[in-house]
Amino acid sequence: MIPWLRNLFGNRPVPLKGVPKVRREKTYSADTGYVYQYFYQGYREASRGGDHGHEYLFSVGSSRASRFDLRVFLSRRALESWETANGRELVPTEHYALVKLSLFRAFDERQDFSGENSQVVVTPEQVAEHVNTLDL
Description:
Layout: H1 3-9, E1 26-29, E2 35-48, E3 51-62, E4 65-75, H2 76-86, H3 92-109, E5 119-122, H4 124-134
Parallel strand pairs: 4-5
Antiparallel strand pairs: 1-2, 2-3, 3-4
């Protein structure tokens, strides 16, 4: 392929799935004292460090900064850990609930969402904790 064509067409992100027809702004008051407004934008298949899963994208604004994208990565490995121990698979709506709780935890614990902090990775321990919180 011609190099300038590769640059033009080769690095496009994978399109988002589950994009809401109507974007609804939601608000979360974090333990840090900040109030965040966010929109869910959709999800896509993604990989992090050789681990496959889904990346959920949120557009976030706060009282202290302009709007920014925040990605929450839910790996297949983190889900399988809980599913194997409990003998059932979690369904996509439960995946989204786990992602939202992880998003809220990040809002509660972080004050800076730049650089490496612009993404959240859901761990197997968090999956187990969130499933207990949700009483699934």
